[in-house]
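Table S2 (continued). Query chain:
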Amino acid sequence: MSKERIVIVGASHGGHQAILESLSRYNDVDITLFEAGDFISFMSCGMELYLENSVTDVNDVRNFSADDFPQPNVHVLDRHEVTKINVDQKTVTVVDHAKNETLDQPYDKLILSSGVTPKSLPVPGTDLDNVFLMRGKDWALKIKEKLADPAVKNMTIIGAGYIGIEAAEASRKAGKNVTLMDVIDRPLGTYLDSEMTDILAKKLTDEGIHLQMNAKITAYTGDKAVQTVQTTDSDVASDVVIQAAGVQPNTDWLKGTIDLDNRGWIKVDNYLRTNLPDVYAIGDATLAYSIPAQTKVPIALATVARREARYVVKHLFEKQPAEPFKGLVGSSALSVFDDHFAESGLNSFTAKRAGVTLAKDFYHTTLRPKYVPSDKGNPDVYVQLFFNPTTHVLLGGAVLSSYDITAQGNVIALAVQHGLRLEDLAEADFFFQPGFDRQWSLLNLAAQHALGEEPFTY
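Corresponding output:
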């Protein structure tokens, strides 16, 4: 009997995990992964570390390589672009760019992990030299070259989300004059509420980054190479522009075959199946089911793609999957110079977008007992909790400090995933040792504060 043929499109986190899961669970499968790019597979979330000379080598900043899978039943092929799904024949049409040939690859099960592509602003001048995007190995090399170029004085970063913050910090550490722009009113405004973004905005300006929020960009101008970013309020001198203004699903090639929503996201059911039989979709090009929002929302995270891949492959050969995909919370973390935050689940922005009513509480204290001075390792810490105003079920939260307390974000994620209430978190059994924390741990205290209890001050 011939082996079942699994074809995977896309060599990022979801594609990699799909190979691992298939090898772990099945002995009678033949696995082929197609990647359109020429490098398998650059980890763009590690780009800041590369730009700051904190990695072994640019070629090591990857999820995996083809050499990681020497098994004869695994075929990892770069420069192979899948352009069409042939439903009746159960094949995909693939362009081999290395040989300039086209082939049809049969499949029994097809897993789409096509990912997203960065957006370029719809303004004049995006085709000028030194206007970059911040995704993938090729762009990383170009940006790194400019950071090392003493002739580059002024760098403008478009977009104040995670990628924009990373680009701004790396540029500033390289000694550049940095302007960070966004159309929204505050940096990281879609990830954190204002109580925390106010702290981080001050950190950015203290480090010498010029913030221009509520910026309406009208054009990039220059003679061959960019020289200026024009807004409705000012012109900003720019030797290099890095665009980090969001992403869009890489799904144009699926139009007319796979059901997409009006923004191009792949529609999947509760089992991550598309409208086509034996065709599944995972990762950034889909909408993920959010446990706290109880609806499908875009969550472009490696952690999401890997968990979806694990679920899909586990149930890949069941006629009817034994259980639906349970969904995710969505958690992330970032350093902003020497401040560190982690966030999980919903915040005010994402809750409003999902139509969810929530209450929130912001808590400020110190990490360790009050008798430990700040210069002896007792920094300020901040916690924000989001919860259902009636049931007190936790819907999200965030932590922030100059000390790395980001692991507390994982505790919040677990609490949200399992539907814990403020009351549960207020008395959860965590350790105490004054070299690390307080008699009531940080999240105990934050939940007690949200409940309006008498403050514990020691």
